[in-house]
Write a sequence for this structure.
């Protein structure tokens, strides 16, 4: 073998082992996070499992650069550990039977008769503070023949790029109902973007009065809420409403995990709307949902007769001190 060929072969081996080392490092990080979020046994059990997996990955990485007997033994040990980890991961399944936080304790369910939709478990809490509220779940009927408007609400709590997306449907009598795709928190849990990658939360669809779900965000939680009127033809508005109902009904029988990227408050809305109006382009702003107004403006979903900056100023729902008992009066007030 010539010196050049031998050099190329050595270089390929080194590059291959370096890439395998990177894959092992990535699997070490993923495995430790998965174990940290899902391994039973409390802090000590999670810690021991993470340490064991990290050591196994480190030994496998070290063995890549050693003699063949080392590589074979470490490779088999890593493969067995990875198989056990993946098997355990597949055993983590979503459930509707947990001790849930009060604001997601009940699941939305809807029935359709002609143009009338009956929603069970519409949330209408009286919020005095984020941890001080009166629980109230109600059954409501909505006539889709009288559906007149769709508004997109964005609630910012962590800078301009990240916002929670809600959709409000308005009817001829002045009533509104808001649908929100949310994590279904267990009692005492807090939202975590990282946890959303590792099956920490189930997925839920909440239907609520604006005086509940928009007030608690713009008031007690101190978030910046914007409400944008969306241009949609009546048929599309109706189908989007029914898509929320169908998604909620499916979750009552087949629970799903929330996922920070693939199954969140924005991507699910995109899939619903894309099924109604095919051809909507994928865009980074579907993940960085704080920039959704720019995306909708470009796609003609917002009023383009005025600059977006003007729309944003009009859309701002200022800090709210109290919510009216009358939901129609509240909805009228936040629209200035």
């Amino acid at each position: 073998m010539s010196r050049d060929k031998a050099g190329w072969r050595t270089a390929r081996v080194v590059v291959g082992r370096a890439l395998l080392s990177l894959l092992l490092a990535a699997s070490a990080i993923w495995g430790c996070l998965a174990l940290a979020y899902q391994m039973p046994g409390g802090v000590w059990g999670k810690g021991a499992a993470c340490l064991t997996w990290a050591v196994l990955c480190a030994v496998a990485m070290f063995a890549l650069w050693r003699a063949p007997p080392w590589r074979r033994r470490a490779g088999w040990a890593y493969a067995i550990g990875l198989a056990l980890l993946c098997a355990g991961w597949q055993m983590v399944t979503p459930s509707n039977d947990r001790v849930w936080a009060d604001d997601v304790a009940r699941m939305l369910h809807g029935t359709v008769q002609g143009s009338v939709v009956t929603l069970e478990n519409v949330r209408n809490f009286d919020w005095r503070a984020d941890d001080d509220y009166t629980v109230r779940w109600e059954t409501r009927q909505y006539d889709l023949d009288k559906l007149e408007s769709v508004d997109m609400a964005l609630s910012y709590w962590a800078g301009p790029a990240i916002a929670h997306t809600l959709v409000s449907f308005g009817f001829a009598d002045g009533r509104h109902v808001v649908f929100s795709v949310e994590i279904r928190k267990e009692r005492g849990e807090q939202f975590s973007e990282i946890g959303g990658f590792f099956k920490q939360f189930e997925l839920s669809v909440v239907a609520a009065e604006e005086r509940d779900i928009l007030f608690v965000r713009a008031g007690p939680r101190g978030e910046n809420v914007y409400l944008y009127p969306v241009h949609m033809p009546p048929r599309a508005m109706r189908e989007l409403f029914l898509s929320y109902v169908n998604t909620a009904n499916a979750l009552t029988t087949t629970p799903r995990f929330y996922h920070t990227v693939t199954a969140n408050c924005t991507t699910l809305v995109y899939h619903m709307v894309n099924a109604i109006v095919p051809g909507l382009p994928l865009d980074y702003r579907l993940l960085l949902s704080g920039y959704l107004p720019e995306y909708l403006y470009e796609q003609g979903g917002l009023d383009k007769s005025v600059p977006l900056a003007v729309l944003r100023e009009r859309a701002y729902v200022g800090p709210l001190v109290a919510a009216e008992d009358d939901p129609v009066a509240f909805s009228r007030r936040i629209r200035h």
In short: The first strand starts at residue 109 and ends at 113. The CA atoms of residues 261 and 287 lie 7 Å apart. The chain has a mean pLDDT of 90. The two ends are 82 Å apart (CA to CA).
